[in-house]
Fold this protein.
Amino acid sequence: MVENFHGYYRKEIIKSIQTIEKEYKPEDNVLLLSVETGIANQYVIDLTKNAMRGIESKITKGWFPGVAPLGYLNTKTEEKGNNYIKKDPEAFNHVKRMWELMLTGKYMPMEILRMANNEWGLRTRKGKKSGGKPLSKSVMYKILNNPFYAGLIEWGDFKGKGIHEAMVTPEEFDKVQYLLGRDGKPLLRKHDLPFKGVLNCAECGALFTVDRRFKVLRSTGQVKEYIHYHCTGKKGNIKCTNRLHITQDDLQRQVEGEIGKIRIEPIFWEWALEVLNDSSQTDVEKNENIVETKNKTLVNLESERQRLIQMGYKGLILDDDFIKHKEDLEKQISSLKSNLSKIETKAIDSKKTTEKIINFAAFAKLKFANSDIHTKKSIVRALGSERTINRKKLAIRPKRYFIPLHEQYPLLESEFKRFGTDETLSTKEKGEALIPLRLRWRGRRDSNSRPHA
C-alpha cells in the first residue's frame, strides 16, 4: 500500500497531501517525504503490536478483551490493562433468568423476549448516544448463541476458559443450542468425556467413541441429555459386529466396580506404608554396602589405568596392547560410575512408585468420584494396560502390581470386617485377633514391595 502511495505521488496522480503541520507536493523533496511516511508507518506498526500485546495479556489472564455483553460490565476504575469484567447489578439476573427459562424447554425465545421487555423491564445497555431500548430479536439470539455466557472466551482464533462468572455451564449451553435448532451451534462438538479414547473394542481393537444427544421430554418439556459409547469400527478391513451402544451411566458403574477390585481399607493402607518405610531403611543399608564395594573396585580400576599409562610412557608395552587395555579399563570405569549414580536414584524411584501404587489403591475410588475428566481418564488408564468392551461388558486386565490385590486382598478384608463386627469380642480381643492378619498383610507387602517394571 505504501509503494502504491509513492507511485501515485510521483506520477502526480496525488496532487497534494495536507497534514496538520504542513502540505506536501510532488515537486517537494521526495526523500524527506519517504522518511516521514516511513516513520509514520512504523508508528502504526508499533501501535498495533502494543495493542495486540495488551489483548493477548488480557486473554491469558482469562478476561475478554472487548466490550462485555448484556448482563456484564467492563470496569473503568483500574490501571490501564488491569480492568476486568463484572456482573451488571441491573441486568445480570434478568439475562440469567432468560437462560433458565430457555433450559426448561417450555418457552420459545420470542416468549422469553416479551417477558424480558414487558414484565422485567430489561433494556439494552445505555450509552452516550444510544441504548436503553427494549431488546430486539437479533439481540435475543446473540445472547443465546454467545459462549461467553457459558464462561468461555472466543476472540479470533483463540478459544479458552474465562474467569468471569458464567450464567450457564457448557453442557447447558449445548442444550440451548439444540433447542434453537439451525440457529444454534453446539459448543462441545468434540466431546471430551471421561471414557473417550481410553477403551477399545474387544472384537476389532478399534477405539470406542461417544455420541451425545439431546431430547425434549413431552411430559415435562425439559431437555434430557443422552450419552452413549460405541465402537468406531475403524480398524483396517475388519468387519466388527460388536456395535452395541453402552450408556455412560452403565460404563461408569462398571469402571467403579473395577476400581473396587484394587481398593484397600484405610487400616491396610497404614500397614502397607509401615512396611514400605521399614523396607526403605533396609534398602538404604544394603545400598551403602553395595556402594562401598563398588567404590573400592572403582579405585582399583583407576589405579590400574594409571599404571598402564606409566608403562606406555616408558615403552614397556606395545602400542596395540596399550590402546586395547586402556579402552577396556575406561569402559569398566564408565560403566561402574554410571551404576553408582543409578543405585540411589533407583531406590528412591522404587519407593515412590510403590507408595504411589498404595495410595492409588486406597484413594482411587474417592478421587474418581470427585475429579475432572482428565483425571478420570488417567485413573482408568492406570487400572490396566488392556481395557476392552465386548457386548456392553467392560474387561480390564490389571497391571502386574495390582494382581496380588485382586487375588489375596478380598480374603484379608473379609476377615478384617468379620473381626470388626463381632460384638462378642472386646476391643482388646479384636486387637489381638488382628495381629495375625496384620502379619500376613505385612508379609505379602514385603514380598511385593518391588513393583514390576
